[in-house]
């Protein structure tokens, strides 16, 4: 059973995504339950005939266990349908065996990582004085070095100075065996933390870009790569390029892929570019600012787009489910929730 303490984060952008908008009330209950059941740290389980280490965002369960945790009104069929649907949306991966079911929340680290919370550490309660801003010797700085380095460098602190200070804190100031008073060695670190006033603002901005949310950039790229059909040249995509995708934004990058795939369907002879080619330069033609200039025909040359009022991700989901076919609506393929959405937008 997962830990029954602590908390999770849910980003407000979930409200605008098809996985939420087009889900039934039962599926929404299951989605939130899955997030709460996921491990927030490594945990050992017996699975698939041997010992397995569940990473943060993973957990091992069964359909019956999920039904029990979700509570009254949720059936095994509800859970099975929800898991299949969430897997199509790249929200999770689901591996089932006779001994259990391994579920992995795909973008867990993007929204949940790098928190110094009140969770228990090595079986002991976290020090309550942390809420008052007091740092006790029990804080494990080695596990948060990456987080602190990125945080301080974003505020203009030289990265080498940060690493030197963290190393000194770990080896001396916060070492239980040392017994040294922090105030005796505090003067020098404070001087090192003071940014050089002569450093220009543009240099600080450059350092910020280099350290911009690397875990988030990696998570976004994995999502985009999973959506793209040609899986060739993944290793050629640089960290700098991944950070560019983060700056462009997930929604616009998804639109670039959708637009490119739609163009491919117009000509049967065309094949997708290698993934490395598309994500290095090919996607640029499909950015909002470029695609709009190329693909907006003059008025009167083509009929109005009936579904222009829908969000791109919502429209894509309806097209995948067969509800939207060209400029027509196939009511027979629509669920009650999808019908209500179409009525709300004035399309029915």
Primary descriptors:
mainly alpha, 7 strands, Arc Repressor Mutant, subunit A, two-stranded antiparallel ribbon, 348 residues
Task: Please specify the SSE layout and strand pairing.
Blueprint: H1 18-21, H2 25-37, E1 43-47, E2 50-54, E3 58-61, H3 63-70, H4 76-88, E4 92-97, E5 100-105, H5 108-112, H6 145-154, H7 159-173, H8 187-193, H9 201-210, H10 214-227, H11 239-248, H12 250-266, H13 275-280, H14 288-295, H15 312-320, E6 324-325, E7 328-329, H16 336-344
Antiparallel strand pairs: 1-2, 3-5, 4-5, 6-7
Give the count of structural domains. Answer: 4
Number of helices: 16
Overall structural class, as computed from helix and strand content, comes to mainly alpha
Output the CATH topology of the largest domain: Arc Repressor Mutant, subunit A
Mean pLDDT equals 75
Question: What's the order of the H and E elements?
Answer: HHEEEHHEEHHHHHHHHHHHEEH
Shape: globular
CATH structural architecture of the largest domain: Orthogonal Bundle
State the share of residues found in helices, binned by percent: 40-55%
CATH homologous superfamily heading of the largest domain: Winged helix-like DNA-binding domain superfamily/Winged helix DNA-binding domain
Mind telling me the CATH class of the largest domain?
Answer: Mainly Alpha
| Main pleated sheet | 3 strands, antiparallel
Query: Would you count the extended β strands for me?
Result: 7
Distance between the amino and carboxyl termini: 46 Å
* Strand line-up in the sheet with most strands: 3-5-4
Q: Unreliable runs, pLDDT <50, ≥5 residues? A: 115-143, 173-178, 180-186, 294-302
The whole-angstrom Rg is 25 Å
Determine the strand fraction and express it as a percent band: 5-15%
């Amino acid at each position: 059973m997962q830990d029954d303490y602590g908390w999770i984060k849910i980003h407000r952008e979930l409200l605008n995504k098809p996985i939420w908008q087009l889900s039934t009330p039962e599926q929404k209950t299951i989605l939130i339950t899955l997030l709460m059941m996921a491990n927030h740290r490594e945990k050992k389980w017996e699975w698939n005939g041997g010992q397995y280490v569940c990473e943060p965002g993973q957990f091992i369960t069964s359909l019956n266990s999920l039904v029990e945790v979700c509570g009254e009104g949720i059936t095994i069929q509800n859970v099975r349908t929800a898991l299949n649907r969430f897997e199509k949306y790249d929200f999770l991966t689901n591996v089932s065996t006779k001994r259990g079911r391994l579920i992995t929340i795909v973008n867990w680290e993007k929204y949940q990582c790098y928190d110094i919370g009140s969770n228990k550490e090595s079986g002991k309660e976290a020090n309550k004085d942390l809420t008052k801003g007091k740092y006790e010797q029990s804080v494990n700085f080695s596990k948060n070095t990456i987080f602190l380095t990125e945080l301080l460098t974003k505020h203009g602190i030289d990265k080498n100075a940060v690493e030197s200070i963290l190393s000194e804190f770990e080896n001396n100031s916060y070492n239980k065996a040392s017994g040294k008073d922090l105030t005796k060695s505090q003067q020098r670190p404070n001087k090192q933390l003071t940014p050089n006033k002569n450093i220009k603002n543009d240099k600080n901005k450059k350092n910020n870009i280099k350290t911009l949310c690397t875990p988030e950039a990696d998570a976004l790229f994995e999502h985009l790569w999973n959506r793209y059909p040609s899986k060739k040249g993944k290793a050629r995509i640089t960290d700098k390029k991944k950070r560019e995708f983060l700056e462009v934004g997930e929604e616009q990058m998804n639109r670039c892929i959708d637009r490119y795939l739609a163009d491919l369907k117009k000509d049967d002879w065309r094949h997708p570019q290698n993934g490395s080619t598309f994500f290095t330069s090919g996607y640029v033609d499909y950015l909002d600012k470029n695609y709009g200039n190329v693909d907006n025909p003059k008025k009167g040359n083509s009929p109005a787009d009936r579904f222009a009022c829908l969000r791109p991700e919502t429209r894509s989901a309806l097209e995948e489910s067969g509800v939207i076919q060209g400029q027509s609506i196939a009511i027979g393929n629509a669920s009650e929730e999808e019908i209500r959405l179409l009525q709300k937008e004035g399309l029915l």
